[in-house]
Amino acid sequence: MGKNNLIKPQASKVDVLMGLQWGDEGKGKIVDTIAPHYDVVARFGGGPNAGHSIGTIVLNQIPSGALNLNSRNFIGNGCVIDPRILKMDLEKLIEIGIDVSDRLYISERAKLITPAEVLIDAWSEHKKGTNKIGSTGRGISPTYTRHTARESMRVLDYFSSTTSFHKIRDHVRQVVDLIKLERSDGEQFVHALFSGSSVEQVMDVWKGSFDFAIPIKSVVETDYILNTLEKGCCVLAEGAQAHYLDIELGDYPYVTSSHTTTAGACIGLAVPPKYIGKVYGVIKAYATRVGNGPFDDEFTDDKLTKYFRKKGHEYGATTGRPRRIGWTNFDLVQKAIRANGVDYLFINKVDVLFNEKFKIIHSQCDHDFEGLDLKNKKPNLELENFIELVQDWLQFSKSGTKLIGIGTGPGRDDVYYL
Ligand code: IMP
Q1: What does the DSSP assignment read for 220-262?
Q2: Tens of pLDDT along 53-90?
Q3: What is the DSSP letter of 322?
Q4: What SS3 class is residue 147?
């Protein structure tokens, strides 16, 4: 077990780190630990639907490089931003003594989530009843929908007109009126979502948050990352959500609305593919999913689900919803490895399997393990077997992917590098 000396970014390259399951693989922690190797940590897609936990703090919008005082942090054009949640992230960091404002850069083409999109998201889920996607309710899908309809408000649009704020407020009013007209429970619904506040009050908070969190000095042109790369810097692209939530390659329609895969980093950071360097994939030793959608290896035993949920703290970092739990299916991981060109693999949360009998699933056979012992942070025979099995499987699958690290706890130091 060695140090993280396999993390060797190349100058002028974007390395991509992404989840290979349904999100919540512990990407934030890995980004936090490898960020010191990079000049810039960049988010390329998604928005406040992501909840990246770094130790005890959860960031929704700001890249997980924030805790590394030397990293610049960038929110790319592929992202959607709710200024209220960005402000909350900034405040959480200030509370622990980190002021990131001078090293946070936001693409002028990032799209704005307004209270209208949050209302539409929640209302559309409410109307779907049992057929709902299980969205995070953060306005993600309506914001991307408006964007593809060529109607979204980007950061640059907001700054380019004096009437932008009024336009947004009018749109919120229209949406509120439509919801109230559409069904008899509309009025009550809006009241609950706005916590009894008026459109004016909600919009005042939104504007105050915008002014605080997106000052003009933080806004940069679309080619910011390209310029950075041309100067020889190394960039880490931090994926949000994960492969099986990708709008194109995921379990459609039970997906998010952005491109969460490696290819998404090019679009969402506005860099051509030739700049992509290494790809890190992250999985969990067991699998979880929030929201609806297929999950073949989900536990059917309620007791086991509850036990693992408690032991692994498996509640959504953004929504607090209990996560569904099952075993990791290596065939699915393999598909995600191929589709994303993963060079290095991290397996997180191996500590949760301490003393547990557990399984990993793949098409050849299921492997049962007796329980891992990580007491002195020293792997026992079972963990060594587990590592060996994963390594053999990676070799057998001819993907060229190397197992690089094993996560053994929530802290920065809780990663074994192989
Ligand atoms: P949306 O992104 O809020 O529209 O949600 C669409 C689906 O993606 C739902 O099943 C969500 O639970 C899931 N999802 C979105 N973001 C995350 C994430 O960061 N982790 C895990 N699941 C997510």
Answers
A1: E-TTHHHHHHHTT--EEEE--S-GGG-TTTSSTTSS-SS--SH
A2: 888 899 999 999 999 999 999 999 999 999 999 999 99
A3: B
A4: helix
Token pair of 211 as six digits: 């002014």
- Closest Cα to residue 407, out of 361, 338, 352? 352
pTM here is 0.94
**pLDDT tens figures, 260-277:** 999 999 999 999 999 999
Evaluate whether 14 touches 277 at the Cβ level (below 8 Å): yes
Residues pairing with 209 in the sheet: none
Note the pLDDT of residue 1: 45
**Residue 47, both tokens:** 């928005």
- For 91, 257, 354, 357, the CA distances from 371, given in Å and listed in that order, are 41, 38, 6, 5
Task: Kindly state if the Cβ of 138 falls inside 6 Å of ligand 1.
Answer: yes
Residue 321 alpha carbon, nearest atom of ligand 1: 12
Return d(Cα 380, Cα 90) in angstroms, integer.
Answer: 41
H or E stretch at 28: helix 27-34
CA distance 168 to 97: 34
- Structural tokens at position 193: 């979502």
Helices (H) and strands (E) in the chain, counts: 13, 18
Catalytic residue numbers read: 24, 52
Strand-pairing partners, residue 159, are: none
Q: How far, in Å, from the CA of 241 to the mean position of ligand 1?
A: 7
Mean pLDDT for the chain?
93
